[in-house]
Design a protein that fits this description.
The protein is α/β, with parallel strands linked by helices. It folds into 2 domains: 166 residues, Ribosomal Protein S5, domain 2 (2-Layer Sandwich); 238 residues, P-loop containing nucleotide triphosphate hydrolases (Rossmann fold, 3-Layer(aba) Sandwich). It is 37% helix and 16% strand. The chain contains 21 helices and 18 strands. α2 crosses α3. The longest helix has 19 residues. The radius of gyration is 28 Å and the shape is elongated. It starts with a strand and ends in a 6-residue tail after the last helix.
Amino acid sequence: MSLAIVHSRAQVGVGAPAVTVETHLANGLPSLTLVGLPEASVKESKDRVRSAIVNSQLNFPTRRITQNLAPADLPKDGGRYDLAIALGILAASGQFPSAALRDVECLGELALSGAIRPVQGVLPAALAAREAGRALVVPCENAEEASLASGLVVIAASNLLELVCHFNEQQRISPFSSNGLILLNRPYPDLSEVQGQQAAKRALLVAAAGAHNLLFSGPPGTGKTLLASRLPGLLPPLDEREALEVAAIQSVASLAPLTHWPQRPFRHPHHSASGAALVGGGSRPQPGEITLAHHGVLFLDELPEFDRKVLEVLREPLESGEIVIARARDKIRFPARFQLVAAMNPCPCGYLGDPSSRCSCSTDQIARYRNKLSGPLLDRIDLHLTVARETTALNPTPQPGDDTAHAAARVAAARERQFKRQGCANAFLDLPGLKAHCKLSTADEHWLETACERLTLSLRAAHRLLKVARTLADLEEVAQIGRGHVAEALQYRPSSQ
């Protein structure tokens, strides 16, 4: 009787829970039995593993083989367990010492030839293996991705026979050493390319400085999309933890995590996107657009054209920073700490309030159009700004300091003050933090209460207004929020929501 244990990792959301592949060889009729809640793709691994072992000039034992994928209540799917299953059989049959697998985790799909094929979701598994203090065996194509987990020993193998020789110490595989990530960063479009729109640029600066949500409203062609695309360039660079979280999400979503790494994501879904596309889902839950925009920007153009039910699902993640997808077997949490930027026209034809007087919409049409957006959703957007039409001068004179580099420096300085003071951006302040860091003088507090009553603002809107005022004060490098900051913040709030 022989027993071998191989460590591997499952993929659940953006997490990688541990899976132990236990292999037991016993006397009896030759067979291979897999238990531990394997899905169809895992059950099919029996044939892939058998062919891979035989074609690698190794011995497939003619004994009764039982393999348990523990824990038994965790569903297992995909081909990521092929390598662990094959190594378990080879170790249990004595073709290399089972002790060699004690401090190693394995991921990889096997070809019938014995080659090891890449799998998705390697980075979350690499981070979990690093926490467990084990090395990670991955296909060569996944080695660069796994090496993002600094301090992890990565063993990159191209085929099964090569790996067996490594464990037998016949020909050791050197730990993978990255030559340095090739950062394919796209240059951010510059803010100076936007003609005029000084008020909108100011709102964009405030949104970037405090991580506030922003809504642009105006006629077609006024630069709303152009302005929104400039926001990622104003935001501070991702730190290592944030960059790894973004890369892990892209890895799970089958996106190349090294592409434009470590830039902040900018997601721009079409208005026909379904609820599942926006928040994630499916029989095997995958991250949606709000998770793919984690630590970045989610831009929703033509906001009223989105289905209202789709937009309503944004309300909870805008507050909590995560989305929970419930299934019969489990609840899966995806991170969704994104910054929402939206754009819309003022009416169906788009020209309400335009100097050209081209609007032909009736009052009822305008009301139906605007009613596609609920008050609670609009209440969660900190900055509302109307973008008016500018002149059509082809070569306007740029304003001093009206560029991405200058604006990004101001944003970085404001964010640094916020993190030193409270440990987070102003938009993420909780109620105790709001009371501690957004204090007003007695006179200004009474003035704000009166203004909120006249504008019929909700308590949530008043709190968000205070956070915007705190950001305006940070941009001016002053410790105390003044009435001027509150007055400017009020200009960004529509009344009667």
